[in-house]
Design a protein that fits this description.
The protein is of the alpha/beta class and 374 residues long. Helix content is 42%, strand content 16%. It has 14 helices and eleven strands. The chain has a six-stranded mixed β-sheet, with helices on both faces. Strand 6, helix 5 and strand 7 form a beta-alpha-beta unit.
Length: 374
Amino acid sequence: MGAHRRMHVLRLSACALALTAAVPATAANYYDNKTVTIYVGLAAGGTVDTLARQFAQYWEKYIPGKPNMVVKNLTGGGGMKATNFVYEAAPKDGTVIYYGTWIPIAQALHYPGFRAQYEKFNYLGGVADTRVVYGRTDAIPGGIKKPADIMKATNLWLGGNASTGSAHLSGRIPLDVLGVKYKQIVGYRGGSDIFLAMESGELQVTATSIGTFRTRSAEFIRSGKGMGFFYLVPVEPDGTFERNKFITEMPAFPDLYKEVHGKMPAGPTWDALNWFTQLIGTMQYIGLAPPGTPAQAVADLRTGFDKMTEDATLNKTGMERNGVPYEWVEVKKGERVIKSLANTDPKVLAEFKRLIDVGAKADKVVAPKAKKKK
């Protein structure tokens, strides 16, 4: 090889080395070597906590950089404490997020203890849910043989986490609309404690998700000790509604109401319940990143959530466990639901506030030392 040609080859090699050094072999991901803490607002073992832990195992696999996701429980106010913490005090770097029930009425009614604003969060993805109300069959003399028999009850104890919590209200307000007589006990840390109280006879009725009804409460129902009374479904202005084809063990609420009262529900309390059902039925559980979270972190978390919803194993497992498919709520739809809060009819809000005030005055708050021994 001549001297001139050797110099040309050396120059090309030097250029190639320079280009290789300028471009890393693998571009770094935002979440490389990071841990994401998911705060859940209810106690371990309940519906929300179980879903969060299940989703975390899949979610982390699809986030670029594959961070480790861990779940922490921060109970209080039916999810308000955890929501406030992530909104106000959590690091705004994408390493802390919220997952669980959202509390639209807390924002709509300006609860003093609720300081978050959902539209300022970074919505990551959500899941719709069907709420069911169920209870003990020995709640009346002679036993409850069919859902309509709940109307014969004269002193039901209804249990929940907080009088303002979405889970509790999804049980309490339908009973108001039906005209069922009840008293309430609130202050339980989560669904597991409520279920234990149901098993022990401390409670006779509560609300939960269809998934939890069919998993944690399954043996209780099979044994004949418990029964599903109805499930909630949103009703259109013309009175039409869509029954859930996956739920056959209990009637939809409007069907039970018609069986009992001979007509469709109507009136201010019904309007408040239907508004509430529209919100939580469309989107019950949500993932949120704090305001100010870097755009790249939000984009990566959303990417991971979207890809998780397509995971065949996760969807198959959900269907096998719950008997209903997961109803995923993507970003555009979730943000639209949150935005709709600002357009709520003032009359509906006024009625909901009245219901909250009545419930707060009737609360019997549970302390651990006050619970009955099993």
